[in-house]
């Protein structure tokens, strides 16, 4: 009775530690750890039955324990754990299972040195140890994987020791399993074992295919040999080994079919998105094509999707701060995650270095949703962002060529006219100025990146900048600064054509009103005198008090 109570305490402590660690650290996948807790529970029940001298019931629970352990390890090695690809692992496990089965049937047989201990347990222990070793090697210095490996070594050592020298000391290996698996769930590194990572397809090689085929064919061949040569004495062992090998083979084929299906889906979605982006004529069409492609690429729609062709349109936390060579990165959350959620934000920049001059402000595709879903489609989303960047650069270059042709046409038409006309970009840089302006201010040519505020009197520059930052058309009165330090009063009428694809800026026409007559008499009545140029206000004051 006391011996059974001891196993109950060990099992309860281990299960409690696994549940506590899972609820505290909140890994991306809770299922593997809950299955691990279920396997520990089954082992505890088996130990209790074994303590009450019920070996048949204990063996049934032990075998059930290995079923839950297998499911847990399958979940841990599924394409989102540290072990990116489990195809080779499954092939090796199947071959190891068939090899152990041959060794058991041929070399051990009825002369079992482990007494009455079932051979199925030995097969389960060896496979469990193989998977634990592969996880530990893949993670490298991950304490949770090392503790899982310690538990696997402990249960194998306990089986061997109890088969050779039954007694209390031989049960230390089982105690190590309880303690190490509970500690593995309590350690923070357990989150890394189930953190989502993109799965990678493994090319099918004939050597590995032959290895898997030999593994599947070994159990029925052994059974046939025993049936032909005499009575079947290892039927149970062969049946268990064949079942394990068959499950591993089905899992391997299922993974291959799933990866192939996902690859075809991504290829079709990217092909359709590429066709839509090639036909897109503006940013709105690109936005629609990207949103439609994201819906097809991800099995679950993201919580939030932001597509901005300009960094200035992005939320402040999502503004790209990493080098331009980065294809994507995870955005650190600005607020703590709510309990029970596993949302993350993925930023895919719309940068292409050779064409950065077309859109210097970049932009990004920002998606917020489940981390495992975004991780699975991260590669495809990076490709989609690159295609969208190409489409935006093409549209920008076509617009730039159109604006250049428009400017050349305007230059040819109004070359000899006396009207003063300017085309100003959104950043207030003068893109085109008619020859009449250069003649008016006495300059042969304007320096590069000259703004209208650079040409006016310093007292009027802030007013001009303010007017050109507003939306809509308007009129502004200002004084142009000439090369000989004299001033020219002009009436500048501007039109806001920043939304026009062929202009993308302000069109300003100026009229010289300096020599018409006195500034106070010739200017229209204004409710606010602040709208007048500063030097006109000074002349107005002199005009009023000159008598």
From TrEMBL:
Pfam families cross-referenced by the UniProt entry: PAS
Ubl conjugation found in the keyword field: no
UniProt KW NAD keyword: no
Residue ranges crossing the lipid bilayer per the database entry: 6-23, 30-52, 58-77, 89-107, 146-165, 171-187, 208-229, 235-253
Protein name, UniProt field: PAS domain-containing protein
SUPFAM superfamilies per record: PYP-like sensor domain (PAS domain)
Gene3D superfamilies attached to this UniProt entry: PAS domain
Source organism (scientific name): Winogradskya consettensis
Record InterPro entries: PAS, PAS-like_dom_sf, PAS_fold
Residues annotated as domain PAS: 406-470
GO biological-process terms attached to the record: regulation of DNA-templated transcription
Keywords: Membrane, Transmembrane, Transmembrane helix
């Amino acid at each position: 009775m006391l011996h059974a109570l001891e196993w109950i305490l060990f099992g309860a402590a281990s299960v409690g530690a696994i549940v506590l660690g899972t609820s505290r650290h909140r890994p991306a996948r809770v299922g593997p750890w809950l299955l691990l807790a279920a396997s520990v529970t089954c082992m505890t029940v088996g130990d209790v039955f074994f303590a009450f001298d019920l070996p048949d019931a204990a063996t049934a629970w032990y075998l059930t324990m290995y079923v839950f352990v297998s499911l847990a390890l399958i979940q841990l090695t599924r394409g989102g754990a540290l072990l990116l690809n489990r195809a080779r692992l499954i092939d090796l496990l199947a071959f190891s299972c068939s090899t152990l089965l041959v060794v058991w049937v041929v070399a051990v047989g009825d002369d079992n040195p482990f007494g009455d201990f079932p051979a199925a347990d030995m097969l389960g222990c060896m496979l469990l140890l193989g998977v634990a070793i592969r996880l530990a090697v893949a993670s490298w210095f991950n304490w949770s994987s090392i503790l899982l490996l310690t538990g696997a070594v402990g249960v194998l050592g306990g089986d061997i020791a109890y088969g050779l020298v039954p007694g209390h000391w031989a049960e230390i290996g089982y105690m190590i399993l309880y303690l190490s698996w509970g500690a593995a769930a309590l350690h923070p590194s357990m989150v890394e074992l189930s953190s989502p990572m993109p799965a990678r397809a493994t090319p099918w090689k004939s050597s590995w295919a032959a290895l898997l085929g030999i593994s599947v064919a070994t159990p029925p061949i052994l059974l046939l040999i025993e049936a032909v040569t005499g009575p079947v004495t290892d039927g149970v062992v062969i049946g268990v080994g064949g079942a394990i090998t068959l499950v591993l083979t089905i899992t391997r084929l299922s993974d291959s079919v799933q990866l192939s299906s996902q690859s075809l889906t991504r290829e079709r979605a990217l092909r359709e998105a590429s066709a839509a982006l090639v036909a897109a004529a503006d940013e709105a069409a690109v936005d629609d094509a990207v949103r439609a492609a994201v819906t097809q690429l991800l099995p679950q729609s993201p919580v939030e999707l932001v597509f901005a062709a300009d960094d200035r349109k992005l939320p402040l936390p999502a503004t790209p701060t990493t080098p331009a060579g980065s294809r994507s990165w995870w955005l650190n959350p600005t607020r703590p995650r709510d309990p029970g959620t596993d949302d993350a934000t993925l930023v895919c920049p719309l940068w292409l270095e050779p064409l950065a001059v077309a859109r210097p402000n970049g932009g990004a595709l920002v998606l917020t949703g489940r981390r495992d879903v975004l991780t699975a489609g991260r590669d495809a989303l990076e490709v989609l962002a690159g295609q969208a960047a190409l489409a935006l650069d093409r549209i920008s270059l076509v617009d730039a060529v159109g604006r250049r042709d428009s400017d050349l046409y305007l230059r040819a038409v109004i070359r000899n006219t006396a009207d003063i006309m300017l085309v100003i970009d959104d950043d207030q840089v003068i893109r085109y100025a008619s020859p009449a302006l250069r003649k008016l201010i006495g300059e042969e040519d304007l320096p590069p990146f000259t703004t209208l505020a650079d040409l006016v009197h310093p007292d009027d520059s802030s007013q001009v900048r303010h007017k050109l930052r507003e939306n809509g058309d308007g009129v502004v009165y200002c004084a142009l600064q000439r090369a000989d330090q004299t001033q020219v009063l002009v009436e500048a009428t501007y039109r806001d054509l920043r939304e026009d694809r062929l202009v993308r800026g302000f069109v300003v026409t100026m009229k010289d009103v300096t020599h018409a007559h006195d500034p106070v008499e010739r200017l229209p009545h204004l409710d606010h005198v602040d709208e007048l140029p500063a030097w006109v206000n000074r002349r107005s004051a002199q005009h009023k008090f000159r008598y």
